[in-house]
Automatic annotation (TrEMBL):
Its EC number is 4.3.2.7. GO terms for biological process: glutathione catabolic process. This is glutathione-specific gamma-glutamylcyclotransferase. Pfam families: ChaC. It comes from the Bacteria. The keyword tRNA-binding does not apply. GO terms for molecular function: glutathione specific gamma-glutamylcyclotransferase activity; transferase activity. It comes from Pelistega suis. The lineage of its organism: Bacteria, Pseudomonadati, Pseudomonadota, Betaproteobacteria, Burkholderiales. InterPro entries: ChaC, GGCT-like, GGCT-like_sf. Keywords: Lyase, Transferase. One of its GO terms (cellular component) is cytoplasm. The keyword Transmembrane helix does not apply.
Length: 184
């Protein structure tokens, strides 16, 4: 955690890029939030979840960032008075299994480009799903549940939250609609 924090020249005005559940449940204090676009990465259900949205016997899927494309999300500025405390909360949530590689990357916002902490999928870990077909993805999402509830709720809540935030992800909307149809 401190290694990542120390990579910044100045440890103030620290921004975090959210692209999944951080959009609808950040769980850390922030002073400002903006729409942001990250170039070079795209949102994907590419991370196995064996606790929060699945079990070891029936793993679920959660979002990660894969190389290629662009991803719209939100950036959050952590209060300067409590950077360490809020950073700890974020780190406990996002890095318990070290499935992500934390990186400081440029994000484009309406107010200009800022450098934000981005959690990118580490494709070398066992938590990386590899390529799944659309049907495999839907079956996993429909059948998995963990301590935070059913995987399908996570996917549809994320899709709905992105739409409310004015973030367009056509494939996620399509996938969410397929899941809702199957559940009906």
């Amino acid at each position: 955690m401190f290694k990542t924090l120390n990579e910044l020249e100045e440890q103030k005005n620290i921004w975090i890029f959210g692209y999944g559940s951080l959009v609808w449940r950040p769980e850390f204090a922030f002073e400002e939030s903006r729409h942001a676009t990250l170039t070079g990465y795209s949102r994907a259900l590419c991370l196995w979840s064996c606790v929060n949205r699945g079990t070891p016997e029936q793993p679920g899927l959660v979002f990660g960032l894969k190389q290629g494309g662009t991803c719209e999300g939100r950036v959050y500025r952590i209060p300067n008075e409590d950077i360490i405390g809020q950073f700890r909360k974020l780190w406990r949530r996002e890095m318990p299994s070290e499935s992500y590689t934390p990186m400081w990357l440029p994000c484009e916002t309406p107010e200009g480009i800022i450098k934000a902490l981005v959690f990118v999928m580490d494709t070398r870990t066992n938590a990386y799903t590899g390529e799944l077909s659309e049907e495999e993805t839907i079956e996993i999402v429909l059948n998995a549940a963990g301590t935070y509830g059913p995987c399908h709720e996570y996917v549809t809540q994320t899709s709905d939250a992105l739409a409310r935030a004015g973030i367009k992800d056509d494939y996620l909307v399509y996938l969410s609609n397929l899941i809702k149809q199957r559940l009906a």
